[in-house]
Amino acid sequence: MDYLAIVVALVVVTASSIAIHLLARAKKARPGNLPPGSLGLPVIGQSLGLLRAMRGDGGSRWIQDRIDRYGPVSKLSLFGRPTVLLAGPAANKFLFFSGAFSTRQPRSVQRILGEKSILDLHGADHRRVRGALLEFLRPDMLKAYVGRIDGEVRRHLQENWAGRATVTVLPLMKRLTFDIISALLFGLERGAVRDALAGDFVRMIEGIWAVPVNLPFTAFSRSLKASGRARRVLQEITREKKKASQVEVEHGNGKASRNSDLITCLLGLRDGHGQRLLTDEEIVDNAMVALIAGHDTSSILMTFMVRHLANDDATLAAMVQEHEEIAKNKGDGEALTWEDLAKMKLTWRVAQETLRVVPPIFGNFRRALEDTEFDGYLIPKGWQVFWTANVTHMDASIFHEPAKFDPSRFETENQRASAAPPFSFVAFGGGPRICPGIEFSRIETLVTMHHLVRQFRWKLCCKEDTFVRDPMPSPLLGLPVQIEHRASP
């Protein structure tokens, strides 16, 4: 009963504060210029309706209903804040490139990932941190990662797929991408530390989008504790690698090696005055973000590729042929190379079409730093702006027969693809904040699918082929499949 009383008190106080905030904002705004729509009930707004729709895989329909009713620009209230929904290619371009907006993550995300992450930085700080991360993701460094990722994928399939009659795809893909990221980002080898970090990572994710009330029985509390343990591991790794880099400096080599991990790379970066580009806190916070970003998107993408290919024999057969042609020119056990990935054009088109139909990120929020206008409507300072990928991805005027799975949309010579307006395919975002890990995700996906389609056949265990979002898409029961080894050609 004590816990219940505390929760009720917190809800009342929070609700009252947010309601006052909403009323104050509404009075300050010039009502005649605000977009059509309604802020709904205080605090609740339209949040429950959107969350309910997303959990039933109806989020896209919910958004489209609003657009049909109010147009591509409308006001509403989401998660306790007045919000403007922007939809369409022109709105995407405006939002991605305008300097009047910064990103805004829920408080729970900030508490768990840290205050110095790239997700909440803007201006010069964002450019500095993004530039540091891109240093690790330079093309010449990415080429060096292909062989290491190949080794992780081979081990994963041998240990978790080979000899099994059934597997559950999503948790296995998540463990695979976690192992890849642990090795390349943190230099963590297989063992107890990596296994413990994997467990904490799962618990951390469970409460990352929860109500940020730090009480013992809440998901947020468990997530926060797991985040603390994970952070201590990364802090210790950072200290150890800092000592190693100082030894290198003493020997006249202060730069990170070409094959170094992310933390070593970031520690070695210097500005024009020879000072470190990032602090220890910034390195740890952004390593936490990289762990999340590099894990979820790729694992979800590959899971839904497996899901689609189970019922698309023609596309699967074409992919198998593409990968067998690549394998013909390689010796037994020889790792894939950067040049091999360049030949996997069909596989990447299948990946892009999967991202179009089921984008891992449903949408995202920005915050207005000043009063600004779009399409004749006022977006008041401090309001949220919400955009979603599905609006353009499933627009029949942009993508012909959008419900049809058609990888040929992404052929460079295909006229339909070239005619699509810019900022229509936004699975990775766009503008200065476009996902910096696109190429890393591409490597993970292509290497994994190469070995998967050559070694296994599979069929879905569940007749009901559905998925929900919470907030990432998740297929029914994690996508259990029956598997069998594919005979050697």
Structural summary, described in words:
Heme binds at residue 435. Keywords: Heme, Iron, Membrane, Metal-binding, Monooxygenase, Oxidoreductase, Transmembrane, Transmembrane helix. Belongs to the cytochrome P450 family. InterPro entries: Cyt_P450 (IPR001128), Cyt_P450_CS (IPR017972), Cyt_P450_E_grp-I (IPR002401), Cyt_P450_sf (IPR036396). Pathway: Plant hormone biosynthesis; Hormone biosynthesis. This protein has helices spanning 2-28, 47-55, 59-70, 89-97, 107-113, 123-136, 139-160, 169-186, 192-206, 219-250, 262-267, 280-309, 313-328, 338-342, 345-357, 390-393, 415-419, 438-455, and strands at 73-78, 81-86, 101-103, 166-168, 363-368, 372-374, 377-379, 384-388, 456-460, 467-469, 473-475, 480-485. Helix 8 runs antiparallel to helix 12, helix 9 packs across helix 10 (219-250) and helix 12 (280-309) packs parallel to helix 18 (438-455). It has 489 residues and is α+β, with helices and mostly antiparallel strands. The longest helix has 32 residues, at 219-250. Strands 1-2-8-5-3 form a 5-stranded mixed sheet. It has a 3-stranded antiparallel sheet with strand order 4-12-9. Strands 6-7 form a two-stranded antiparallel ribbon. The chain is built from 18 helices and 12 strands. Strand 1 and strand 2 (81-86) form a beta hairpin. The chain has a single domain (88-485), classed as Cytochrome p450 (Orthogonal Bundle).
